[in-house]
Structure formats: C-alpha cells, structure tokens
Amino acid sequence: MSQTAIATLLAIATSFYFLLSSPTTKHSYHSFFISTALSDNVSVAHHLRTLTRRPHVAGSEANAEAAAYVLSVFTSCNIQAHVAPYHVSLTYPVSRTLSLTRPPPADSPITFTLRQEIYDGDPYADVANQVLPTFHGYAKSGNVMGPAVYVNYGRVEDYATLKEMGVDVSGSVVLARYGEIYRGDIVHNAYEAGAIGALIYTDRKDYGGGGHDTKWFPDDKWMPPSGVQVGSVYDGAGDPTTPGWASSEGCERLSYEEVEKAGDVPLIPSLPISAADGETIMRSIDGKEANKDWQGDKDAPIYRVGPGPGVVNLSYTGENVIATIQNVIGVIAGTEEPDRFVILGNHRDAWTFGAVDPNSGTAALLEVAERLQKLQKRGSTEWVEENREILASRAVAYLNVDSAVHGAGFRASATPQLDELLKQATQQVQDPDNSSQTIYEAWVGSSNSPVIGRLGGGGSDYGAFVQHIGVPAADISFGKGAHDNRFLIEGQPHFKANTPAEDTQYTTQCTMTSSGWKNLGTQCSKDSCRTAASVWGLVALRLADEEFLPFNYLSYAYELQKSAKELEVEVSGKGISLSPLFKSIKELSEAATKIENQKKAIEEAKGWVSKWKRDHFKVRELNDRLMMAERAFTDRDGLFRRPWYKHLIYAPSKHNDYGSKSFPGIDDAIEEAKNLNTAESWYTVQHEVWRVSRTVRHASLVLNGVLT
Ligand SMILES: *[C@@H]1O[C@H](CO)[C@@H](O)[C@H](O)[C@H]1NC(C)=O
Ligand SMILES: *[C@@H]1O[C@H](CO)[C@@H](O)[C@H](O)[C@H]1NC(C)=O
Ligand SMILES: *[C@@H]1O[C@H](CO)[C@@H](O)[C@H](O)[C@H]1NC(C)=O
User: Fold this and answer.
1) Which of 410, 436, 438 to mutate to test the pocket of ligand 3 (most atoms within 8 A of CB)?
2) Residues 6+ positions from 647 with CB-CB distance below 8 Å
3) Would residue 121 be called left, alpha or beta, if left means φ above 0 and alpha means ψ between -120 and 50 degrees?
4) Is the dihedral of CA 612, 423, 419, 706 positive or negative?
5) For ligand 2, what atom is nearest to the CA of residue 97?
6) Residue ranges of the chain with pLDDT lower than 70?
7) Which residues does the UniProt record annotate as the domain PA (predicted)?
8) Do residues 632 and 645 make contact, with C-beta atoms less than 8 angstroms apart?
C-alpha cells in the first residue's frame, strides 16, 4: 500500500514457450524454472539490500533511484523496459504538534515529541533522518482542540455502542486503536460521528504480545512503545486529483476544494501515534468504564470512554505537491500472440525502508525476470487508467505481490477462476520451511482445501486491474498475517511503522542483514523470497503457455453461490427476492461446464498431435471467451456513488476499505437500509440484486459466446 500505487510491471507474452531457444517440452521447462538450478543464493538478498538502503517514499529522489535500479536489472536481463512517469498529487507533513491538558491536580500540559526511538546498533541510523515524520497521507490540515473520547477500533458499531452508553462524541478528538478496519475509515467514521479530530494509536494488546514484560525490536518481534504505524487515510483509488483518468503531465486536474467535495479525503485532521502516547492520553480519560472487549492487556490501566477530562490539542499541516513517480514497465514480447499478456506487478515505493512491503516483492519479481532470462539464454493505478482500453482487450491476468515475505505460510487471494491453477502450481513447489512437503500441503494444513481470499479489499495494485477493468487477478505472499495480530516492522530503524496496509495484518518482521534477512523467531528468509518467485513465475508461465487458458469458471459459480447463501441470511424477512441472483449463478455454472466440454471436444477432435495442427482459430476463440468473461462482471456506471469501482462482485466495502466482501453494492445498500429502514431503501437493495444478477448473466453469455 502506498500513497498512490506505483508499480513495477512485467508483461510476459502468452506463448512464452515459443521464445525458448532450444526445443523442450513445456512441462520440463516449467520444472526447470522452479528448480534451484536457475536461482542463486545471493541475488534476492542483493536486490533487497539495494532497494531498501534508504527510505524511499513515493515522489522522492530515493524512489526514483530504486526505479533506475529495477530498470537496470530488467535491461541486463534483455527485457525491453521503459519508465512511464506520472505526475501525481502526494502529501507530505510540514508540521505536527500534539499536547494534552489534564485537570488539576495534574501538572502542566504534556507536549508529545512524536518521535520514534532509534535503537542502539541500528545499522541504518545514518539515514534515519531521511524517514518522514510520522503522519497520515492525505490527512486534513488544521488545528483542533477538544476533550478526548476513546472509541475502540472506530468502527460504525463502536459509535453505536458509545451512543447507547450516552456518550456524546461531537466536538471531541477521538482516540482510536489500530486494528480492525482501514485507517481512512477510522477517520471517516469519526467525522460522521461529529468528532473534530482523530488520533490513532497502536495498542500493546493488539501489537505487543500483551503485558509489560514484552520485549520488542530488535530483541523480539514486537513493535517498541515509541513505534508508530503510518499510512494513507485516503478512501479512493489512485490520485485524488485525477479520479478515473491518468495523471499525465498537464492533464485535467481537480482543485483540492473539489477533491474535498468528492468526499474521499478526510475532512478532519488526524495523526497516528505510538502505544506510549496512546496510553498517556488514555489515562487522562475518565467517565464510564469501556466494555470488556474494548480493554487493553493485563497490565494496562482500565480504559474509560470520556469525554475528557483530558483535552487534546492537535495540529497538523501537510503540503500537497505534484510529484513525479515512475512505473517501470518490462515487456517480454511474444511471437505467436504478440497481442496477449500476463502481467506481474508490485509497487515499489515504501513509507519508510520497505524491506517487507513492498520490496520483498520487488526482489522476487527481479528474481523472476532473471530466471526467465536464464531460460531464454538471451504503478499502477495511473498506468491502468491510461492504458485501460488496451488492457481490457489484451490482458489475460494480473499477478500481484506486495510483500513477498512477511512470515511463514503461503497465502493467496484471487478471482475464483484462478483457484485451480493456484492449487496446481503450489503442488509443484517445495515448502521452503519443510523439505518433505509441498507448499500446497503446508497451505492446506489439516483442512480439505486451502483458504483462498478474494480481491475485494482496497489498497493494493490489483485493485485497478480487478475492480476498475475486470482483469482476472491473484495476489500471493508468504506470511499468514490476517489472524495473528502482530505488527510488521518493515525493515530497519524507526520500526518502519507501517502495517502493510493491504490488510489488517500485523505481521512479523524481518530485518535484512548482509546474509539476507535476520530472522526473529519466525521463518522469514531469502529462501521464502525465492520460493515466492517460483510460485509467481510458474503461475505466470502456465497462464502464458497453456494452449487453453487455465481458467475454471465452475469455481466462480461455486464462490458466488456461497456468497449468495450468506446474503440470504442477511436479508431474510425483508421481502427481498434473491431468485434472480440464484438463477444467474445457475446459468454461469452451466456455461462453465459447457466451455469445459468444448475444450475437451477440440482436444479430442485432433488427438495428440502438435497444437499447431489443431484448429488454431477455435482455440483462440475459446480463450477469448475465457478471458473476457471476467470483464462482464464490470458495469459501466460502477457502484452507487463510487463510479471508479466498476466490478459488481469484488470491491471494498464502504465502511472498511480492507473488507473483502462479495457484492459490495448489495452490501452497501443493505447497510443503508438497516439504518433508514424505509420501503424505498429496501427497494434499493432489490435493485442492486438485479444489477449483480445481470452482470453474472452477462458473464455466462460471454462464456457461451452465442448471441441470444
Ligand atoms: C544455497 O542455499 C541452499 C539452502 O538454502 C544450500 O542448500 C545451497 O548449497 C546453497 N548454494 C550455494 C551455492 O551456496
Ligand atoms: C494548540 O496548539 C497550537 C499549535 O501548537 C497552538 O498554536 C495553540 O496556541 C494551542 N492552543 C492552546 C489553547 O493551547
Ligand atoms: C514436514 O512435513 C511433513 C509432511 O507433511 C510432516 O509430517 C511434518 O510434520 C512436517 N514437519 C514440520 C516440522 O512441520
């Protein structure tokens, strides 16, 4: 996650196989690709060290240097590469102050230093001054003063609880803890509740293992008391001044006033603060005792909700600048089908050093490039917006990696037609942490089938591909963060206070040493990074090389059926009919079966002869249908009041950008109808059900390929 998506993209031509100099079978060269023969032990670590030597926030000179490095590696791999610059609106902090006044008999007001400590022996201490002061990207500038109110995670339901307790939030500065929802939504929900400012802190209970005997970085994996999670609070996608179009030089741009009116940037100031500062403010809050599940760890004081009597004075000034960012685009052009691509991508800019998010991903991508080169023996929101029409007609799939490695355990999210392929690819690659099993076996664990996430969340580069134009996509990484509630330390000094925004994932940290990564109690090594490169590259090569695109739409129908069943429970008794939706899903399932049979028929008609003796046109026509079916889930008008989000199956939910729900439009409508409870609001829910049903039906029509 970054202020605005900035990417390294590698487009691999379909039929990569035909670019190989020596004839070989596809199967054997795919095995060769993932074998250790192509991978050395130093490359990944070297890339990572070079990319993370300095903090490289978007728009900085250090990030331009990192782009030049990526370009040079691509070029040295004989990959045609170029830099596509965009001119985007970014924000940087200019000044911040925070003070707390407590009622007598307390002493004089406390002024917080807002500084993260550098630890003894930090090998990156010399460049620590290049780390930006802690702030929220796209935060509102202003000075506000008000009593502090503790609002737990700042979710809509937390404000409902406060209301039941009779606590008035209006005019207050809320103290929320990081954890359950996207920080932009924490600020937005605070504004909706009438607060004038928001402070978001890192509670030890969520990020520190609990208890004051906890050790922290660099002695253990937890974030130190002065560590601060930074990140963006923007609720939209890409550059806020160019919603839906590319930020090229001299392009049309909204004024900042217009951006504020559009409603995706916060309208009240906010600051991220440390566990230590959060606790100091917490101690100044009196009033009713907060619920049990709002409390801290065993050594924490009792949390109360306020308001006050502690009064917070928060002031933040940011500057809006138009900065140049660089997408590095590498293209391996094909000979057989030069108009089709599989795209691999990762953003490059980091809030600080980015050892995990995103540069473990960048290092893995460079490793993929190097291996492809050896085989041959010879940012994306803005980029997507600009190349929308070409991508919509030519991109086969987009494969994303933000953080290649932030712990142990394989994790994948995908649009469902890729499920089978992911399962198959992981069955071919060995688990880096246990040589007697495959990644698949480790991933499945004791269940029958692995858990594959979906791509409805915001905050990563796949968003533009899936949610804006409907390109099938996958996102992979090592590190099961979502459930283990820890904090990511993104590299070295200053604790890189950035939970990878891609999730509410509080992952473990890796620090990089000259031999790779220092491993603090978790499996996090350059071997994992190389393994990520193996899976990533293998999935790409299978997509590029299979005669028939390895897309299975039966999985899609199955997933939709599951989500529709969940919906049934939510709307029961409200007079909503889901039968159009179930009917369209049944049609999709039939179309998916039919196209599988057609595939078999083409194969059988020609028998086991060389693919080029088959009816090439028929194969291509069938692949077109497989490729374009995903586009059919997009709707020209997009989601209600969120027109950038065209995909009606996967998009962020309105009150939590990280939430990955299916049917976001129906979900938003239900949320609103539950609040208003009018006939009209429930009618809107029914309308959204119809809209989704129509796109699902369109997808089955595309798969069928026959005019109605
Ligand atoms: C590379 O590392 C692996 C273990 O990760 C080891 O088995 C192998 O011998 C190493 N190769 C070289 C050339 O150091
Ligand atoms: C609040 O903080 C601002 C900025 O530091 C300062 O100018 C102002 O005087 C403070 N207000 C009070 C009442 O202390
Ligand atoms: C390694 O994998 C094997 C096969 O799945 C399993 O039996 C064994 O317990 C695993 N070892 C560890 C340390 O997890």
Assistant:
1) 436
2) 466, 467, 468, 470, 633, 634
3) left
4) positive
5) 5
6) 1-6, 15-27, 41, 207-212, 217-222, 335, 377-379, 406-408, 459, 480-526, 606-614, 655-661
7) 145-230
8) no
What amino acid is encoded at 215 in this protein? K
Residues with CB under 6 Å of ligand 1 are 41, 527
- Map residue 320 onto helix, strand or coil: strand
**d(C-alpha 497, C-alpha 494), whole Å:** 7
Judged by its nearest atom, the ligand closest to the C-alpha of residue 432 is: 1
How high is the pLDDT of residue 552? 96
Atom 12 of ligand 2, nearest CA residue? 313
Candidate from 143, 196, 312 with most ligand 2 atoms within 8 A of CB, to mutate:
143
Q: Is the CB of 143 under 6 A from ligand 2?
A: yes
Give the three-state DSSP class for 312.
strand
Atom of ligand 1 nearest to the CA of 526: 5
Can you read off the two tokens belonging to residue 564? 């529709």
CA 565 to chain CA centroid, Å, is: 26
What does the pLDDT look like over 129-152, one tens digit per residue?
Answer: 888 888 999 999 999 999 999 999
Cβ-proximal residues to 70 (8 Å cutoff; 6+ apart), any chain: 8, 51, 328, 348, 362, 366
* Residues 602-621 pLDDT 10s: 888 765 555 555 577 888 89
Which ligand is nearest to the Cα of residue 409, counting in written order? 3
Nearest protein CA to atom 5 of ligand 1, as residue: 527
pLDDT at residue number 518? 42
Cα atoms found within 13 Å of the Cα of residue 578, Cβ hemisphere only: 20
| Ligand 1 centroid to residue 41 C-alpha, Å | 6
Q: Using CA atoms of 607, 609, 613, 614 in order, give the dihedral in degrees to the nearest 10.
A: 30
Helix (H) or strand (E) holding 534: helix 526-545
For the record, the structure tokens of 318 come out as 């940011």
Tell me the residue type at 220: D
For ligand 2, atom 1, name the residue with the nearest CA: 313
Contact indicator for 169, 176 with CB cutoff of 8 Å: no
Residue of the nearest CA to atom 10 in ligand 3? 434
Which secondary structure element, helix H or strand E, spans residue 81, and what is its range? strand 80-101
Interatomic CA distance for residues 459 and 72, integer angstroms? 28
